[in-house]
Amino acid sequence: MFRRANAPNWLRQIRARRSMPYFTPGVRHESSQASRIDRVTARLPQRLQKYTNGLRNAPVSHVVSFLILHELTAIVPLFALFALFHYTAFVPVAYVTSHFGDYVQTGISRFERYFSRKGWFGFGPGDADKEKADDAMDKWKSGEQKYKILVEVALAYAITKALLPIRIIGSVWATPWFAGVLLRLRRVLTRKP
Predict the structure, then answer these.
(1) CA end-to-end distance (rounded Å), the chain
(2) Fewer CB near the last or first residue (10 Å), C or N of the chain?
(3) Which of 110, 160, 145 is nearest to 131 (CA)?
(4) DSSP state for residue 132 in the 8-state scheme
(5) How confident is the model over 62-95, as pLDDT tens digits?
(6) What span, in angstroms and rounded, lies between the C-alpha atoms of 72 and 79?
(7) Which residues touch 113 (CB under 8 Å, ≥6 apart)?
(8) Does residue 136 contact residue 147 with C-beta atoms inside 8 Å?
(9) HSE (CB half, 13 Å, CA atoms) of 147?
(10) Residue span of the signal peptide, if any (predicted)?
């Protein structure tokens, strides 16, 4: 009789232990995360708080939409500027190299290595090792087609890099709207018939 009285009590203790949440030191709890977002938002100017209020309600959708917008604002101008330079006679080499020379040098070396690795536009595996950015500009002036494409891509890359602050501001500004678009799209795609 004594055992029967203690057995249910013993089972209750095991069930109570299982249902208790365990403390894991590496995991942050939602309440501390929410208070941290509130502290950061409170420090911002009033005109910017309306854009960060969405972080309280839907941080994943806002972060994803910002990242997508940020990448779109990098890819679209890169291809648009390359097309402008390639299909028109407008190639502002002197202006861009004088104002954004480091970006042009970086773009030439980066895309020359990439084109050589892929074998695109007539670049071979050994082209990237031999050539310098100044040599690429000289070959562009002489009229080699593959270096014309390389310089046009490098100029588009330099201008896109120089527009980074404007791209970030535009992405932050459009994030709440684009998060709503993504959530509506998700609802439409995951709707069960």
Answers:
(1) 58
(2) C
(3) 110
(4) -
(5) 888 988 999 999 999 999 998 998 888 877 776 6
(6) 11
(7) 128
(8) yes
(9) 17
(10) none
Of 145, 162, 11, the closest CA to residue 74 belongs to 162
Location of structure tokens 């593959």 = 146
Q: Cβ distance 173 to 65 under 8 Å?
A: no
Q: Which residue has the tokens 């120089």?
A: 162
35 three-state secondary structure: helix
The CB-side HSE value for 176 (13 A sphere, CA atoms) comes to: 11
Per-residue buried b or exposed e for 158-173, using 16+ beta carbons within 10 Å of the residue's own CB: bbbbeeeeebeeebbe
Could you tell me how many helices (H) and strands (E) the chain has, helices first? 11, 0
Specify the long-range contacts of residues 169-173, CB closer than 8 Å, at least 24 apart.
170/69, 170/73, 171/66, 171/69, 171/70, 171/73, 172/51, 172/66, 173/51
The count of other CB atoms within 10 Å of the CB of residue 37 is: 15
Residue 143 DSSP symbol: T
pLDDT tens, position by position, 1-50: 455 555 566 556 655 555 544 444 444 445 565 677 777 778 878 877 77
pTM: 0.61
Q: What does the alpha-carbon distance between residue 185 and residue 193 come to, in Å, rounded to a whole number?
A: 16
Q: Please, is 156 exposed, middle or buried when counting C-beta atoms within 10 Å of its C-beta (0-12, 13-18, 19+)?
A: buried
